[in-house]
Amino acid sequence: MLEKELTVTNRLGLHARATAKLVQELAPFRCNVTMAAKGREINAKSIMGVMLLAAGQGTPVTIRINGEDEQAAMDAVVSLFERRFDEDS
């Protein structure tokens, strides 16, 4: 199992478009991915779950990934966060 703490840095946080991008990025992977923030833990492959976190800019989130392609999935998530979900220019 891999675990990493990331911070939501894009200006609008995990709003609908960013959440959809995250879920689409994770869809091809066969591992389980959870995201924890504000005392909640959700399935990061679920749009509704991620939206319920209401993680705004500056919110720390913990990503936990378990499964056969976990490293590739973690690399994809970290890249997406580092790119600020391709939103901030």
Describe the structure.
This protein is 35% helix and 26% strand. The protein is of the alpha+beta class and 89 residues long. It has one domain: Histidine-containing Protein, Chain: A (2-Layer Sandwich).
Architecture blueprint of SSEs:
Blueprint: E1 2-7, H1 16-26, E2 32-37, E3 40-43, H2 47-53, E4 60-66, H3 70-82
Antiparallel strand pairs: 1-4, 2-3, 2-4
Give a brief description.
The chain has 89 residues and is α+β, with helices and mostly antiparallel strands. Helices cover 35% and strands 26% of the residues. It holds the Pfam family PTS-HPr.
- The CATH superfamily name is HPr-like
The CATH C-level class name = Alpha Beta
Low-confidence stretches: none
Give the number of helices: 3
* Radius of gyration, taken over Cα atoms and rounded to an integer in Å: 12 Å
Number of strands: 4
N/C terminus separation: 33 Å
What is the annotated CATH architecture? 2-Layer Sandwich
Number of domains: 1
Order of helices and strands: EHEEHEH
Question: Beta-strand percentage?
Answer: 25-35%
Give the overall form.
globular
Major sheet summary line? 4 strands, antiparallel
**What would you call the structural class?**
alpha+beta
Pfam family, one: PTS-HPr
GO biological process, one term: phosphoenolpyruvate-dependent sugar phosphotransferase system
InterPro entries: HPr, HPr-like, HPr-like_sf, PTS_HPr_His_P_site, PTS_HPr_Ser_P_site
Family: Belongs to the HPr family.
